[in-house]
Design a protein that fits this description.
The protein has helices at about 5-15, 20-35, 50-55, 90-105, 120-125, 145-150, 170-180, 185-200, 210-225, 245-265, 270-290, 360-365, 370-380, 405-445, 455-490, and strands at about 40, 65, 80-85, 105-115, 135, 295, 300, 305-315, 315-325, 345-350, 355-360, 390-395, 400. By secondary structure, the chain is an alpha/beta fold. Helix 7 crosses helix 9 (about 210-225) and helix 11 runs antiparallel to helix 14. The longest helix has about 40 residues, at about 405-445.
């Protein structure tokens, strides 16, 4: 029996009789094995005592010091575990004893258990930065779990753990040395760096000791799963609410989500970004294909060439600027106004040539641009309906020189470049599909890891599958794009 199989059997036996507390139990085991100070938080009757008993039953030769509300005689030598039940941050004898145990290293592991909110009580006790994990017990039992709760299977006293599975202190010490040798992989660093960046943006403090503790928990998960380095699966526990403070939980969760997204981007780009890139390339190709080599009168705005058009709307003279790169295309777009801002009350379309069709928001057409702007600003968000555009005019573009050889050559080169870039996008999409499939297969092997948090794991696997399906569907579009741009590349003399 491998170590992973042994720990998995131990945890399975320890979970007997617990309902909707299995993930908490596994995290508590991981915290004890890596010596992370922990606070078990929940209302009376939420199962804190049962989870503690089931965890302790998985060890042998444990020196456990338990403190309640009366005696706080500290040990003369370090204990394996110090447990403070009914944690009360307003009771000086208890908070002083906790500070002494932590400050003087009088226990390898410290566990607090109570019903006081961790965000205020840990700070009041002066130990907020010393407690690395807050395991919150749910207040309610979901309807789906009621059958187990009301049956013999849900009796927390009805469990037993085989002696040959129990963990000795000698093993804990031996494993601790092996765990420290497990390197943090680049995949894991995606997650940690993203969390650190979000904490920095949100002014969330995480001590160096806690960072080392989190890394140790990840290393331990990899070790007990039989891996030689950590994987992204070993970081999934960070998506849980483990930090006591709501603001910290939110920052960690956001950083974790960013890290997962960056991790997946390393395997395959976001399909929506890829779709936008390919569509932009099609528009570019269409421009070069349909541009007839004319040189137009333009105005440079922010380094880009624009063609200006003068119109009159409700007796107001209006100047609109359309980018030269849109000539020859067939898509609607918003031009710039005289202030060089995007004018959302107007739309332009070159209709595949160099004649610009201009449409105006019906309200602006009836009342003028200035009046419609005032009306729009005065409207509430609830009545902010999509504008209706009406055709205004079709205006030619001023040509300086027809069939300019330099422009014709530039169009040829531009079309060829667009074709090559789209081919790169297609190649990237195909390779990304292979990478995502390999990643999904690799991560599927993690489902039997002893300490794998199943809820975040299922979410993570669904994200991979969703991206794969989206990219697979988009690949079919890319084939059409490739055909269209290949055809376009043959049209310039």
């Amino acid at each position: 029996m491998t170590l992973a199989e042994r720990i998995q059997k131990l945890l399975s036996e320890a979970e007997q009789g617990l309902v909707e507390r299995e993930s908490i139990l596994r995290l508590l085991y991981l915290a004890v094995l890596t010596r992370q100070p922990t606070y078990l938080y929940g209302r009376a009757g939420s199962g804190k005592r049962s989870v503690l008993q089931h965890m302790l039953a998985g060890f042998k030769d444990l020196d456990v010091q338990t403190y309640g509300c009366r005696s706080f005689n500290l040990p003369t030598k370090p204990a394996n575990i110090a447990i403070f039940t009914s944690f009360d941050s307003g009771f000086p004898p208890m908070t002083n004893a906790i500070s002494a145990v932590i400050g003087e290293n009088l226990a390898n592991e410290i566990i607090l258990s109570g019903r006081l909110r961790p965000d205020s009580s840990l700070s009041q006790a002066g130990i907020a930065d010393s407690i690395h994990l807050v395991l919150t017990f749910p207040d309610t039992v979901p309807p789906s779990a009621l059958k187990d709760l009301l049956s013999d299977a849900g009796d927390p006293s009805n469990y037993s753990i085989s002696e040959d599975l129990k963990i000795s202190q000698a093993e804990v010490e031996k494993w601790a040395c092996e765990i420290e040798k497990i390197p943090i992989s680049d995949d894991s660093l995606f997650i940690l760096k993203a969390i650190a960046a979000e904490c920095e943006r949100s002014n969330i403090y995480i001590s160096a000791r806690r960072w080392r503790g989190l890394a140790k928990m990840a290393r331990a998960q990899a070790f007990f799963a039989g891996r030689s380095e950590t994987s992204v699966a070993d970081m999934l526990f960070l998506s849980e609410d483990l930090w006591g403070k709501r603001t910290t939980n939110e920052a960690i969760a956001k950083g974790f989500a960013n890290g997962i997204n960056e991790f997946l981007n390393a395997y395959a780009p976001d399909p929506e970004n890829l779709r936008k890139t390919s569509q932009d390339l099609l528009v570019t190709a269409e421009h070069f294909k349909n541009s007839n080599g004319n040189r137009y009168k333009t105005t440079t705005i922010n380094g880009e060439e624009y063609i200006s058009y003068s119109i009159t709307v409700f007796n107001e003279p209006i100047t609109l600027y359309a980018p030269l790169s849109r000539i020859g295309t067939n898509e609607d777009f918003h031009p710039l106004n005289a202030l060089h801002h995007v004018e959302t009350r107007a739309k332009c379309n070159y209709m595949g040539g160099d004649v610009c069709k201009i449409s105006i928001d019906s309200k602006a057409k009836r009342n003028g641009m200035r009046a419609s702007s005032i009306m729009q600003n005065s409207q509430s968000n609830s009545s902010n309906l999509a504008p209706v555009f009406e055709d205004y005019a079709k205006l030619p573009s001023e040509i300086i020189q027809a069939n300019d050889p330099e422009i014709i050559e530039r169009n040829k080169v531009g079309l060829q470049n667009a074709h090559e870039k789209l081919y790169d996008v297609i190649t990237q999409a195909v390779q990304s599909l292979k990478s995502l499939k390999a990643l999904y297969t690799k991560c599927s092997d993690y489902q039997n890891d002893p300490f794998l948090p199943m809820r975040p794991y299922k979410i993570f696997m669904d994200l991979i599958l969703k991206r794969y399906k989206s990219l697979s569907s988009f690949s079919k579009e890319l084939q059409q794009y490739e055909a269209a741009i290949a055809q376009a590349s043959t049209g310039i003399p």
